[in-house]
Amino acid sequence: MPGPKDIDGSVGVPTFYGAELRWQREQAGMTQQQLVEGSFYGYSHLSEIERGERRMPLDLAEHVDRVLKTDGFFTRRCEDVRKARLRGHAAYFAKVLEAEKQASTIEEWAPTVFPGLLQTEAYARAVVEATHPMEHAEQVEAKVKGRAARAQLLDGDHGKPTYWVILHEFALRQQVLPGEEMAYQLDHLAELALRRRIVLQVLPWNVGTHPFMLGTAMVMTFPDAPPLVYTESLHSGETIDDPGLVQQYRTSYDLLRAAASPPEASLAMVRKMAEEHRNGRQPR
Q1: Which end of the chain is more exposed for a tag (fewer CB within 10 A), N or C?
Q2: To 10 degrees, what angle do helices 58-68 and 13-27 make?
Q3: Across-strand partners of 217?
């Protein structure tokens, strides 16, 4: 049976923290299961922390320090990991950054701009500069890099989660970038759909009234936890876990899915508009 995969602690603060945690645990001659005994967490949670994939909760950090006798090291540094993960993102988005890595499915509705998980670097920069016009260049760059890091969630051909997105046709037509760059953004959507990394639907502009006329939504389900909903406006966001409200959002999303064009027709529309942008024609 192969041993655990090596962790490259140089990748960033979370992986450095995880590598140190594994080293200290192995030096103590303990398994992951032995280390979490007496805490409220399972060994799989600890394993994801060691790989740099999950944030260390404060109470677990305190437990680890007591068991490993590490003089408060993991308690002191878990806030550094949280800040590193959040770099380039608003504080209210912290729970989503953690949750989407654990999700089995993500279903998102985007009425005006492409979601961050689908944005190219040029598109992300244009959106950030438009919505945060007073920020300095380094702040803009941090936000762009933060979105690029999130988008790695969709890398690979057989990764998780299953990501289902419904875009309004307006988002495809809106000239966020010059023609060739806008075409590249649409090509990126098409490529993800063709690789089966996303399920893509487009809500036609002439569909009329529909179940999600107000707001945005990201609905996340998990293998071992209740579902969550995240909604966002310009400078704020809210994570919803109330079961009744979550069910209302899920019902609304299902009805919206029924109103949108099927994936095949949606993909054809995306590719057609990419060509129109590429040829210098504003999609009508």
Answers
A1: N
A2: 30
A3: 109
Q: Is there a cis peptide before residue 161, judged by omega within 30 degrees of 0?
A: yes
Q: pTM (2 decimals)? A: 0.73
Structure tokens at 96: 């989503």
Q: What is the pLDDT of residues 224-246, one digit of tens each?
A: 889 999 999 888 999 999 999 99
Strands, E assignment, the chain: 105-110, 162-168, 198-203, 217-221, 228-233, 236-240
DSSP single-letter state for residue 187: H
Decide if 19 contacts 7 (C-beta within 8 A). Answer: yes
Domains, the chain, with CATH or none? 13-86 (1.10.260.40), 91-278 (3.30.870)
> How many angstroms separate the CA atoms of 189 and 193, rounded?
6
Q: 172 by DSSP, 3-state: which? A: helix
Q: Which of 246, 144, 256, 139 shows the shortest CA–CA distance to 209?
A: 256
